[in-house]
Task: structure prediction
Amino acid sequence: MMIRMFDADKSGTIGFDEFCGLWGFLAAWRSLFDRFDEDRSGYISFSEYSNALVAFGYRLSSTFVSLLYRTYEKYGNDRMSFDLFVQSCIVLKRMTDVFKRYDEDRDGYITLSFEEFLTGE
Result:
């Protein structure tokens, strides 16, 4: 997923400059992860995850946050790893960006066809 994000020339691989971009991106995410890993366990708990999403500006129901957390916290032991934290945040951001394209009046509701939903276009 991340290689695709930084593969500027769409070659399927990343060169040195693209790798430097990816490295900087991951370093920034690591800093965020460490900021929200309040107990310094090396993992993000549900509570820490909820706090991170609020800090990122999301106002989501606890039911939805729980669903999102359980989707990426693979083992059911309230410990989300760094890579899954990043992946969950990137997916949420992508979903948010697609939603915003359709929410022209910014009321939090959209109407779209099934194909638009599937393609995100």
Summary: The mean pLDDT is 85. Residues 26 and 86 are 9 Å apart (CA to CA). DSSP finds six helices and no strands in the chain.
